[in-house]
């Protein structure tokens, strides 16, 4: 039975929300454990019109920054994007030019930087240096699920992006 485009979009939206909640749970886990204070970066917008029941009409007022930013125990900054897809690949272009510029700046300032991503059922933290060298490493501007395995992280009820799996890539900055 084929899904309609509307059903497929709904499914992708639901999976995206679940993925974001798993990343948020990791941030809470790290904060409660004294490991890091990492927060989701709010989208830059302003309310244009308010409606009943908490609904409103809004307008974006600027470019989106990296999805999450914070500080690791010991003082090192962290910044990362969170991206997921139900397809067999994730394109480098899912990180916008503005986000790339921000991430580059954080990276060059010494922050721990990368992309937490999920392709189908594989969840990983790709170090920023490898994300930037995607063409050199994989011969193209996207990464496949089988290639993401080298960066895979555990998912014990949350995305444990600060802990690389056995054979993982290690430091992201």
Q: What do you see in this structure?
A:
By secondary structure, this protein is of the alpha+beta class. The chain has one domain: Trna Endonuclease, Chain: A, domain 1, CATH 3.40.1350.10. The protein has 5 helices and 9 strands, in the order αββββββαββααβα. It has helices at 5-32, 97-108, 128-132, 134-138, 145-148; strands at residues 36-40, 45-50, 56-60, 68-72, 77-85, 89-91, 112-119, 122-127, 142-144. The strands form 3 sheets. It has a 5-stranded mixed beta sheet with strand order 1-4-5-7-8. The protein is globular and about 45 Å long. The termini are far apart.
Rg of Cα set: 17 Å
Structural class: alpha+beta
Q: How far apart lie the N and C ends?
A: 45 Å
SSE order, as H and E? HEEEEEEHEEHHEH
List keywords for this structure.
173 residues, alpha+beta, Trna Endonuclease, Chain: A, domain 1, 5-stranded mixed β-sheet, two-stranded antiparallel sheet, 9 strands, 31% helix, globular, disordered C terminus
Give the SSE map.
Blueprint: H1 5-32, E1 36-40, E2 45-50, E3 56-60, E4 68-72, E5 77-85, E6 89-91, H2 97-108, E7 112-119, E8 122-127, H3 128-132, H4 134-138, E9 142-144, H5 145-148
Parallel strand pairs: 5-7
Antiparallel strand pairs: 1-4, 2-3, 4-5, 6-9, 7-8
Q: What is this structure, in a nutshell?
A:
The protein is of the alpha+beta class and 173 residues long. The protein is built from five helices and nine strands; from the N terminus they run αββββββαββααβα. Strand 7 and strand 8 form a beta hairpin.
């Amino acid at each position: 039975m084929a899904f309609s485009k509307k059903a497929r979009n709904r499914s992708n939206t639901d999976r995206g929300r679940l993925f974001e909640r798993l990343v948020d749970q990791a941030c809470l886990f790290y904060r409660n454990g004294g490991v890091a204070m990492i927060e989701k970066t709010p989208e830059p917008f302003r309310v244009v019109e308010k409606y009943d029941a908490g609904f409103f009409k809004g307008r974006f007022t600027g470019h989106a920054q990296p999805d999450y930013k914070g500080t690791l125990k010991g003082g090192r900054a962290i910044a990362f994007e969170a991206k997921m897809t139900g397809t067999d690949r994730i394109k480098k272009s899912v990180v916008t030019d503005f986000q790339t510029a921000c991430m580059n700046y954080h990276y060059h300032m010494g922050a721990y930087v990368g992309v937490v991503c999920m392709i189908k059922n594989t969840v990983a933290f790709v170090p920023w240096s490898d994300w930037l060298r995607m063409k050199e490493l994989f011969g193209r501007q996207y990464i496949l699920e089988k290639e993401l395995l080298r960066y895979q992280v555990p998912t014990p009820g949350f995305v444990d992006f600060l802990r690389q799996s056995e054979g993982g890539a290690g430091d992201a900055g």
